[in-house]
Every structure is written in structure tokens, then in C-alpha cells.
Amino acid sequence: MGSNNFYKHEIVIITGMSGAGKTVAVQSFEDLGYYCIDNLPPELLTTFLALMRESERKITRVAAVMDMRGGEFFDSLIDALDKLEKIDDLMTRVLFLDAEDETLVRRYKETRRSHPLDPQGLPLEGIKKERQLLSELKGRATYVYNTSSMKPRELRERIALEFANSSSPKFYINVMSFGFKNGIPIDADLVFDVRFLKNPYYVEELRHKTGLQTEVSSYVLANEETQILIKKLTDLFEFMIPHYKNEGKAQLVVAIGCTGGQHRSVTLAEYFGKLFSQDYQTVITHRDVIHRKD
Fold it and tell me: What was the pLDDT predicted at 147?
């Protein structure tokens, strides 16, 4: 990214897994006033930038979708990003849309489409190939959205929150609770396992409550091991988070997991979310609480 904090132009690269929501995303950017391009070959990025600068329309914000439809051109996207990030007055950001394999397979079946990387085979095979090919690009992404449980409206709202009237990169922390029995969140940057703490599940009157309720959170926080953990993690976060921000990272996803994602992880996600909110824009999400049946 450029060395100064003043940007005359902005380019958002929308990419990620096929079926993860890029169509909804580009429509959202169009609604925000971005000049949008679908399926732009990466090798034409710098050429388009030159045209953008010379345009009488004064185009300053562009969103470009680049995905596996670009075929061999897609391989050059990393090189193109390297060139763009050296331009001082250009803010370049990459939005990578992802989703669980199961979700992507279901979406392909619902639309009766074949995967672009394996049109004659099963969707899952194409998804596996695509995930491997995109692994480096995902690591370069400014934002990674897991759209598995997102409705189109929720994706639009999240894009609007982060990109509307943006003139400089924003940094925010998403603190997420989850249950290991449902899998580790694929978009987590830092994952902490708190299954060693005393489990309120084995207390009859707390079993069907969650860490959002005072009885459960008080039980978890009263544990001596919890207080020791909080102190150690607080020291770690105070050291790490400023470095993530200084490196130009736009978001940090901190995932805290327990067995079912109902009690211990929820309590600690709430605790650290409120702590982080004193200095950073913070979002707290509880991935598995919404799936409770009782």
C-alpha cells in the first residue's frame, strides 16, 4: 500500500470462491457509487488505472470482480497487486469472499450450475481445486468474509458499513465465539481454545442458558483459571493488535472456542469485545448461539 495517507483513487478487488456472493457484492459497491467492472483480466488493471486517471468523468472509486472465469489471466493478479500497491495516491484493497464447502455445494445444486474448474465433474472437486489455487490470494486479502450464514441483505449491510464514503483504510476487530463441535471458523486470524475452563453445561440450572446471561458469565468469570487466562491474553493482545493495525490489516478476527459455543466462549468473547471497543471499532458475533434449539 502507498506510503502516505492521502489517496486520490481507490480500487477494490472483489474475488474469492465461486458461489460465495461476488454478484451481490459488486451490486452493493455499485449502490455505493463505485464504478464497477465484472470479470476484468488482471493484466488490464494498470491499463484501466491509467484510463481512470485521464477520464473526464473523474472516476475515483472502482470495484472490479476478478475470479476464476479469468482463466490464465487470473495467475497474473498477484503481480498486478504488487504494482498497484506501490502507487502512493492509490488505495488498493482486496475483498475475498469465502464459504464452507458444504454451503458452496448446496448453492451449486440450487442453481444447477457446474463449477468453472470442473464443469463435467462434481461441484466439490472443482471447489477443492479452486480453494487451493486461491490460497495465496486469500492470504493477501484486506478483508475476508465468510458468507456461509450470511443472507444477501447482511452481505450488503457489511459492505456498506466498511466501504461507504471510505477515504482511508479502516481497522476493526471481530470477536467471535464458536463451538469446536461445529468446526473452527475458516475466516479466523487468531483461535483460542477455552475448553479447559470449568464448563457451566454440567451445572443443571446453567445448562440451557448462554454466556449472554449474567448467571453463566458470572460463573465463568469467577473461575481462577479464567482470570489468569484473561490477564495473559490481555497482555498478548496489547502487544499484537497494534502491530496488525500498523501492517495495514483492515480486520482482525479473534475466535474463541469451547465445546458447544454456548457458555465459556460466549462469556469471553463478550469480555474481550467490550475491552477492545475502548480503543478499536469492534464487532462481537456468536456463531453457534443462534443455532440453539432450546
Answer: 92
Given the C-alpha cell 469492534, which residue does it identify? Answer: 282
Handedness of CA 22, 24, 28, 34 (dihedral sign): positive
CA distances 164 to 1, 30, 161, 208, 252, Å, are: 20, 11, 6, 40, 20
d(CA 245, CA 294): 40
Largest CA distance in the chain: 69
152: cell is 444477501
Asked if residues 7 and 84 have their Cβ atoms less than 8 Å apart, the reply is no
**Model pLDDT for residues 171-213, shown as the tens digit of each residue:** 789 999 999 999 998 889 999 999 999 999 999 999 999 999 9
Give Cα separations from 215 to 131, 176, 203, 274, 279 (angstroms).
42, 20, 11, 18, 28
The distance of Cα 191 from the centroid of its chain, to the nearest Å, equals 14
Give the integer Cα–Cα distance in Å for 91 and 7: 6
Q: What is the 3-state secondary structure (H, E, C) of the chain?
A: CCCCCCCCEEEEEEEECCCCCHHHHHHHHHHCCCEEEECCCHHHHHHHHHHHHHCCCCCCEEEEECCHHHHHHHHHHHHHHHHHCCCCCEEEEEEEEECCHHHHHHHHHHHCCCECCECCCCHHHHHHHHHHHCHHHHHHCCEEEECCCCCHHHHHHHHHHHHCCCCCCCCEEEEEEEEHHHCCCCCCCEEEECCCCCCHHHCCCCCCCCCCCHHHHHHHHCCHHHHHHHHHHHHHHHHHHHHHHHCCCCEEEEEEEECCCCCHHHHHHHHHHHHHCCCCEEEEEECCHHHCCC
